[in-house]
Amino acid sequence: MIGIYFSGTGNTKYCLEKFIAAYDNSAETIALETPGVMKHIKENQDIILAYPIYYSNLPKIVDDFIKKNHMLWKGKKIYIIATMGLFSGDCNLTE
Ligand SMILES: Cc1cc2nc3c(=O)[nH]c(=O)nc-3n(C[C@H](O)[C@H](O)[C@H](O)COP(=O)(O)O)c2cc1C
């Protein structure tokens, strides 16, 4: 198992590290931007991918990474942790 995160202000990194500590203390967590991150993904069967929600979606850097490296994910178990500030931007809080 390995945890891969993209985190702007640290919330997602924090949540992923909390999850990994509770679930599999021996697993590593690394940033998506780390050079050689693909090698780490290749070597692990279970991947926890963590990112913040940006405007009800995933950040472009994460979307691009997933698509550019689409062969990396074949046959693996992928778990997603998506952090949010409040809620998806689709609701109208003034009503
Ligand atoms: C550009 C941008 C767009 C965001 N859009 C949403 C959103 O649509 N819904 C939401 O609940 N939070 C939204 N947030 C808040 C982040 O998802 C939230 O603060 C997240 O935990 C930040 O994680 P990080 O500290 O790992 O960057 C947005 C934040 C940014 C910077």
List the helices and strands and how they pair.
Layout: E1 2-5, H1 11-23, E2 28-31, H2 37-42, E3 46-52, H3 60-68, E4 77-83
Parallel strand pairs: 1-2, 1-3, 3-4
The structure holds flavin mononucleotide (FMN).
Flavin mononucleotide is lined by residues 7-12, 52-56, 83-89.
Task: Give a short summary of the structure.
This protein is an alpha/beta fold and 95 residues long. The chain has helices at residues 11-23, 37-42, 60-68, and strands at residues 2-5, 28-31, 46-52, 77-83.
| Net shape | globular
End-to-end CA span: 44 Å
What's the arrangement of strands in the largest beta sheet?
2-1-3-4
- Proportion of helical residues: 25-40%
Task: Provide the CATH topology.
Answer: Rossmann fold
Which structural class matches the secondary elements? alpha/beta
User: Kindly state the mean pLDDT as a whole number?
Assistant: 92
What's the story with the biggest beta sheet?
Answer: 4 strands, parallel
Cofactors, ions and other ligands in the entry: flavin mononucleotide
What is the tally of beta strands? Answer: 4
CATH superfamily: Flavodoxin domain
Which stretches are poorly predicted, pLDDT < 50 over at least 5 residues?
none
Level-1 CATH class name: Alpha Beta
What key phrases describe this protein's structure?
single chain, 95 residues, alpha/beta, Rossmann fold, four-stranded parallel beta sheet, 3 helices, globular, binds flavin mononucleotide
Describe the structure.
This protein is 29% helix and 23% strand. It is an alpha/beta fold and 95 residues long. The protein has a single domain, classed as 3-Layer(aba) Sandwich (Rossmann fold). The protein has a 4-stranded parallel sheet with strand order 2-1-3-4. Helix 3 (60-68) links the parallel strand 3 and strand 4 (77-83). The protein is globular and about 50 Å long. The termini are far apart. The model has no long low-confidence stretch (mean pLDDT 92). The structure holds flavin mononucleotide. Flavin mononucleotide is lined by residues 7-12, 52-56, 83-89.
